Amino acid sequence: MNAFMVWARARRPVLTRDHPQVACTDISVRLGTEWTALTEDQKVPYYQESWRLKVIHQQQFPGSTWTYKPPRRKKECAESERPSTRDSVQAQEEEPWSYDASIPHQVRRLETGIFVEL
C-alpha cells in the first residue's frame, strides 16, 4: 500500500462523514487535491507507514513478487480463415436455424455463429 493509500484510508471516512451527499468519485477527487496540497514533511509519516506495511507483507509472503502481465491480445484470423459474407447470407437463406439438443430451447444458433434468444 503506498503512502497516499495509507493517508486516504484515514481521511476518507472523515470526508464521507462530513459530506454524506457527495458521490464517491467526488470524494476521491477531493482526496487527491488534499494530498497534493500537503507538504513533504506532512507526508513523511505516511511514507514510513507504507514502508512498514511493505516489510510486514514481505515477511508474511517471502519470495512473492508482483510482475506486470500485459493483457492478452486477440488472435487475428488470416484472410483465408475468415468466412465470407456471401457464404453466411447464402447459408441463412437455405437453412437459417440449426438445431442442437445441447443448446437450451430459448437460444438457437444461426449458421453465422450469432446467438438469438427466442
From TrEMBL:
Name one process (GO BP) from the record.
cell differentiation
What are its GO cellular component terms?
nuclear speck
> Its Gene Ontology molecular function terms?
calmodulin binding; DNA-binding transcription activator activity, RNA polymerase II-specific; RNA polymerase II cis-regulatory region sequence-specific DNA binding
Instruction: Alphabetically list the UniProt keywords.
Output: Activator, Calmodulin-binding, Differentiation, DNA-binding, Nucleus, Sexual differentiation, Transcription, Transcription regulation
Q: Which SUPFAM superfamilies match?
A: HMG-box
Query: Is Transcription included in the keywords of this UniProt record?
Result: yes
Domain of life where this protein originates: Eukaryota
Mostly located where? nucleus
Matching entries from InterPro entries are given as: HMG_box_dom, HMG_box_dom_sf, SRY-related_HMG-box_TF-like
Q: Where is this region: Disordered?
A: 66-100
Q: Where is the composition biased (Basic and acidic residues)?
A: 76-85
- The residue ranges of the HMG box domain are 1-69
State one Pfam family annotation.
Answer: HMG_box
For this protein, the DNA-binding region equals: 1-69
Q: Where in the cell is it found?
A: Nucleus speckle
> What family does this chain come from, according to its entry?
Belongs to the SRY family.
Q: What's this chain's function?
A: Transcriptional regulator that controls a genetic switch in male development. It is necessary and sufficient for initiating male sex determination by directing the development of supporting cell precursors (pre-Sertoli cells) as Sertoli rather than granulosa cells. Involved in different aspects of gene regulation including promoter activation or repression. Binds to the DNA consensus sequence 5'-[AT]AACAA[AT]-3'. SRY HMG box recognizes DNA by partial intercalation in the minor groove and promotes DNA bending. Also involved in pre-mRNA splicing.
PANTHER family registered for this protein in UniProt: SEX-DETERMINING REGION Y PROTEIN, SOX TRANSCRIPTION FACTOR
Protein name, please?
Answer: Sex-determining region Y protein
